[in-house]
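## Example pair
The file below holds two records. Each record gives the amino-acid sequence first, followed by its structure token line.
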Amino acid sequence: MIVQVEGTDEKILEHITKEKLMFFFSELKRCRKEKTESLALKIEQFEKKRMAEERMYRSLSPLRKLIVGKRPDHHLAVEHMVYVKRPLQEIDELSFQIRLIEQLEKLLNEDQPIQLPPSLANELFQLYTDSLGKEAKS
């Protein structure tokens, strides 16, 4: 199986088995899914915290509301951007990469030549070299 970097004639992993390549693709997919789940969990935790703060503020008496005060809206907007919007963008990017890996798996099953984007090629090559190092130690 020949694996090339997209947009170049550079061949990486020329003599890798189909099974090993499928294993590496599944590892890449697993890592991205775990990252997606952890980001979704962080977003959920932030939303729960924000809702709890809002409920607490609404339950206060008018006098306590004057004393405690409410955070300015621009602070809330910045928090939303940092804790919700950016992680959602990252989740979208990871989902795109997962779909790309799934397409590459289909190509692999059809015995088509594999052309990887440079970032994915680097990660795959790193996984391959790490696995060679583990096999050498065994």
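Second record, same layout:
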Amino acid sequence: MKKISIIVGLLLVALAMFLVIMPTPDIISIGPSPERKVEIEKTRLSGWQAGTKTWEIKAEKIWFGQDKNLAYFSNISDGTFYDKQKAAVVNGLKCNGGYMIFEPLQIYLKDGVRAEISEQGGDKMILATSQLEFNHGRIFFPFDVALASAKEQVTGKRMTYDLENKEANISGNVQIKLDKKTASAGQVTLSGDTYLLKENVVFIDSGRKVECAQLQWSRAGQRADISGLQKLSTKEMQIAGSTAVIEPARDTAEINGKVSIVRNNDKIQGSKAVIRSGKLEMSGGIKLETNQLEKYADKVRANDHSPQRAIITGEKLDYDPSKNLTIIEGQVFVKQGDNEAKADLVHYFDKAKMIRMEKNVFMKQTDQWLQCQKVKVDIAKEEFISEGAVKARIVIEK
């Protein structure tokens, strides 16, 4: 009888040991943690909500401690987070380890976190960071984040990813490389094919540098919509305005709303400016201020050691940097001190210090005046040539 009892006891011990070390199934649903520590090797843990799988993690080891509300992971080789349509939004997740709180559900993963993130439209970006926190349908990456695709790279200090909307919000000195374009901002939202940049935005492309409050970049349309424009800089000029649209593929930039341009020593104002292949077109209340219309060395006054500035107003302005030529049209008025002039068309060669006025030209200086159809003024030589129905009143000093 004793031998039978001993044999039965040994069988029970062997059965208990077999149950502990037996091979585990591939998928284990979340349930209450056992009171004692249980370790499961090479398995996949899945989470469900309202009958829909929301996430799953495959790890080298998953174990449960005395706390029934905790599970621990090590060497995660694959992980996936799903949206409500059961689509894998974050997949290929890998990291060294982490843990999970069952109620309320929270997942914390850390050390060498890598994953593939899906965007609206099906595009994917590779994620690299040090820590991941999952909570209420959002994934938070609290430390240095890097996203990359074939033509794009994004880095920032932290990121929140909305699984349902497939929207990433990145903040903290965000740096972006978009093919041949670069940008930086305090905050960036990546949604679908759009980047929305806010806070101290800088955007550089094809010799243009934009500084603004907000910029929205469409990857599909290759277009930047800008608001709160502080400065748009090119090799030839600096432009300020309210809003702007830049299309690099067309080499075009359009600026609207109280546009102000600084070019060499000139200042130009208007309501709209368009730069096409480096050439400037402006319209709406043109005002150009320059000191190039007088001979600097001979015109400095005794009490004013700066040149006397000329003001040119008109309706439309075109500027070609390659020719150093500015053309102003539509009831053009020129005023410099006591000198006044008007015409329908003005050609202004700033570096050559030459101005040509055409159509209904009228020039006046104190009690002298000149009327003609065309006049050419050489500022450097202090001489002019007029032609076409010339009428004048000139006072000759004895």
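Notes on the second record: The chain is about 5% helix and 65% strand. The radius of gyration is 36 Å.
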